[in-house]
Amino acid sequence: MKKDRKLKFPLKGKFVAMVAPSFVVDFPYPGMIYGLKKFGFDKVVELTFGAKLVNQAYYKELQKEGFFISTACPGVVSVVLDKYPQYKKNLIQVDSPMIAMSKICKKVYPKHKTVFISPCNYKKEEAKKSKFVDYVVDYRELKSLFEKNKINLNAKKKMHFDKFYNDYTKVYPLGGGLSKTAHLKNVLKKKEIKVIDGISRVMKFLDKPDKNTRFLDCNFCVGACIGGPCVNSTESLRKRRKKVLNYLKESLREDIPEAKKGLTKRAKGISLITSFAR
Prior knowledge:
About 35% of the residues lie in helices and about 10% in strands. It has about 280 residues and is α/β, with parallel strands linked by helices.
């Protein structure tokens, strides 16, 4: 939790839950939304809109000359700063989807506390450094809370995330999800993009980088976010990946008349440029 503070359930006050799309490897949709609403979350949003805005920022940054390392994964950022300071200048100075979505929520829901629902411990460390994320609850903690409070996530309830819809970035938690959804073909050649999951493989590349690579799209965990340390699932990464892809397909068929699909005007005036200085 942020600054070692723990949330008390049921919640009192206004809270917005920000859910990473990797949630489908552990929790059903829309049961996840139902469960969070039962806990007292006034709003439940998905990180996909924030990911879209991050993609737009990456598209601009990658038009510059040089070698760039993705910074959506705080685990990678931490390792680069600690073990490869010579690459600090190569880290893309753009917020992660969590921070981006938090900034948007603070603008649209100024009276709400923001709570990120996470598959990863590194997100807790990232949140501690940000004034935009108030709490982080990981998937293991959330599963325990659902079980303790006997909340049936399979209850037949027709529910949707609150606003900020953007379907295609639901694949962000998969390896290469960022580069696949950032529409980079007009900026980089395919051979200039390197996708690596697993920090040992990332470090091996940084020890001896490919001179043709201009953009390293990398994640700390093998399997990217669906392989996060706080994921409950014991299924194979292949099956987890399939769940995310099926979730994307289902969402494209979903009829949500009130959805404001990816309207970037909601983020007008918000800067996603950041610094990874120690």
